[in-house]
Design goal:
Elements: H1 2-5, E1 10-14, H2 17-26, E2 32-36, H3 42-56, E3 63-66, H4 83-113, E4 118-123, H5 136-156, E5 160-167, H6 188-192, H7 202-214, E6 222-225
Parallel strand pairs: 1-2, 3-4, 4-5, 5-6
Helix pairs in contact: 3-4, 4-5
Pfam families: adh_short_C2
Organism: Qipengyuania spongiae
Biased composition (Basic and acidic residues): 182-198
């Protein structure tokens, strides 16, 4: 929504067809292409980006945002974590970032060749560098996204710049599809964990993506967007 509001044409991929249908109703068809796709599956990603290439009609892709993942990091005791559950977390974040980046590179290079600024923003997590108990697969997936970011930055430059954003606590309840939407009433102690005095909002992440896209001398970096939460010591009471 942030980039659409700034006048961009926006393509979006999601495996939740119901959520995409609601978003289609909110955006003009000529400015948005919304496709059902499981971004953790190679064949679906290839087909989706073929469609995006057709939609761009010879133009390049300026910016790719890899923002998929399983929101709940809790996996339970390590000895009880099944391999397929582990793989689901890895595929949702790390494999998906690889697959979408691989498919997008030709379109991003086309944008750069036409004089534009081509960038990738990988949405990692503060959990890539600090952990909650029993969140092994989520932390590993996001740590992998961080590593993939700097590996791509040194390999795809100078045409394409790649950076990572590590969100902290971002309240997405009001942005969910209608059947899952919520408006949490955060406690004072929740807000007090953040030196900025509030919980994060999706637009905080969108603004960071916009910064990285415009910042032509910045690549291979990892930015915590967490209201200062990870630099504040929290004491048990």
């Amino acid at each position: 929504m942030h980039f659409h509001g700034a006048g961009w044409r926006v393509a979006g991929l999601d495996k939740d067809a119901e959520a995409l249908a609601e978003l289609r109703d909110a955006l003009p068809r000529e400015k948005a292409l919304l496709l059902t796709c499981d971004v953790g599956k190679g064949g679906e990603v290839v087909r989706a980006f073929e469609r995006i290439g057709e939609w761009l009609d010879g133009n390049g892709l300026d910016c790719l945002v890899n923002n998929s993942g399983i929101a709940d990091p809790y996996a339970g005791p390590l000895e009880d974590l099944a391999l397929d559950k582990w793989q689901a977390w890895i595929d949702a974040s790390l494999t998906a970032a690889f697959l979408c980046s691989r498919a997008a590179v030709p379109l991003l290079r086309r944008a750069a060749e036409n004089g534009g600024s081509a960038s990738i923003a990988n949405i990692s997590s503060t959990r890539a560098v600090m952990s909650e108990p029993e969140s092994f697969a989520y932390a590993a997936a996001k740590g992998g996204v961080d590593a993939l970011t700097h590996a791509m930055a040194v390999s795809l430059g100078p045409e394409i710049r790649i950076n990572a954003i590590r969100p902290g606590w971002i309240e997405t309840g009001p942005w969910q599809k209608s059947g899952a939407r919520s408006h949490p009433d955060h406690r004072p102690q929740d807000r007090d964990q953040h030196p900025v005095g509030r919980i994060g909002r999706p637009e905080d992440i969108a603004e960071a993506v916009a910064y990285f896209h415009e910042a032509g001398f910045v690549t291979g970096q990892h930015l915590n967007v967490d209201g200062g939460m990870t630099v504040k010591m929290i004491y048990e009471h």
